[in-house]
Amino acid sequence: MTVLFWLFAALMVLAALALIVPPLWRQRAVAAADMDGRNIAIAKIRLAELQEQREVGLLSPAQYTEQRTELELALADDLDIAAPTAAATPQSRWLVYALVLLIPLLAVSLYADLGTYQALEPTPEMLATTTPTAATPSIEQINQMVAKLAERMKTNPNDAEGWVMLGKSYKYLQQFPKAADAFGQAYRLLGDNSEVMLLYADALAFANNEQMAGKPAELAFKVLAKEPDNVTALWYGGMAKAQAGEAVEGVKLWRKLAALLPPGSQAQQETQAILAKLEATVPGGVPKEAGTAATPAPAAGVTLQVQVSLAASLQAAAAPDDTVFIYAQALTGPKMPLAIIRKRVADLPVTVSLSDAQAMLPTMKLSAFPSVKLLARVSKSGTATTEPGDLLGVIEPVATGSSQSQAIVIDTQVQ
User: Fold this and answer.
1) Which of 68, 163, 277, 307 is most buried, judged by most C-beta within 10 A?
2) Distance between CA atoms of 296 and 311, rounded to whole angstroms?
3) Could you say which of 93, 119, 145 is where a domain stops?
4) Can you tell me the mean pLDDT for 381-404?
5) Shared-domain flag, residues 269 and 327
6) What's the farthest any 2 CA atoms get from each other in the chain?
């Protein structure tokens, strides 16, 4: 029994060391993993912004690829920098060595004074422990990281870059009042920074049902005063004038905007459509100013008329502000959209035109394929990547030479 007892006691000491020592070695590794998670979350938010800018035509495919590559390289650098911190410091190693020696000595000494092995009925058990592995953060994890960033900003209120990051994070989470507060703090610190002013105006408008009156309009026109060709400021300025009943001034701003946007892009087409509606409200029309470039006509080529509706069975699964992507794909080969238009659930049912004008690459357009697949997808996150919970409608094959209107019913939930 004595031999068995001492064997069991030795096993218990080893078990105690197994519980105490690994966390000391892992402590810095866990901190590094937490930092990696934050870096990945920030990169995910920035990538969503780049995708949105590409989809509306503000970034060309080449510009999008270049900026995405820069983002990936920056993230790789951040992860490489964080990795060495996983190594234990000399101080932590000495602490581990001391514990490995002291715990057995103390255990034996105490037992010699207090212990009695006869009272012990050993029943060994196998204990399994797992260590969480790093993964791409979920929305819940991003929420937690944003909350930590918000707490950090309370003790670092003069960190302008931190406020901008917090504002963009809240915007990504569609918490627009909080985003406006964060961008307001950045504006307080940075003053007349055009990017921050427009981010602030955008968040304020979204927090107030997309109304530009007041501070949002003031910020937009302040940017236009120093950057007359800033397309974002022109958009907000035109919206502010239209909402204020100053249609003539709104038309002038949006005409200039349409001339600056990439020819045939979705952003230009949407601006042209809104511009036409606003022009129709002005008796006698609005004469074109001298020196104002005419709005480029859409590119010629294949055009498909597409009607999109949401099935009654899925109405409860969609919110009015959820993004709807309407696009065409090749039946086989690359999944890159041949043409794409972005709407909201509140716009449904809607009829749109898909054409070569919305092609992302000259070689990947509707007219290059005899038949295509047409899709309409409700995105809960607003990003171009299909995710579980999205709502989808598909029809295929569709002849690109068809003059008939195509009807897509969004009737399936992605699992």
Assistant:
1) 163
2) 37
3) 119
4) 85
5) no
6) 108
